Amino acid sequence: MFAAADVFTPTTEEIAQARAIVAAADASGGTVTTVDGQMRGTPFFNAARALVAEADRTS
């Protein structure tokens, strides 16, 4: 069996990807940019910032 927290807790890789997206957003001034060859824009920036904030708050 597994705990619900295990299912919903982001992996280390997901947190690292979110940090990379936040860094790219900051570097681009919030305009559309690419991260690891994929286009990223405001919805991704917002989701990444929320994930990073949650990860920082719970660590």
Distance between the termini: 24 Å
* SSE sequence, one letter per element: HHEEH
**Strand sequence of the main sheet, in spatial order?**
1-2
The average pLDDT score comes to: 93
Which radius of gyration do the C-alpha atoms yield?
Answer: 13 Å
Form type: elongated
Beta strand count:
2
Structural class: mainly alpha
For the sheet with most strands, the description reads: 2 strands, antiparallel
- Residues in helices, as a percent range: 55-70%
Number of helices: 3
Strand coverage percent = 5-15%
Low-confidence stretches: none
Overview of this protein structure:
- There is one protein chain.
- This protein has 59 residues and is mainly alpha-helical.
- 66% of the residues lie in helices and 10% in strands.
- The chain contains 3 helices and 2 strands, in the order H-H-E-E-H.
- The chain has a two-stranded antiparallel ribbon.
- A hairpin with a 2-residue loop joins strand 1 and strand 2.
- Helix 2 crosses helix 3.
- It starts with a helix and ends with a helix.
- The model has no long low-confidence stretch (mean pLDDT 93).
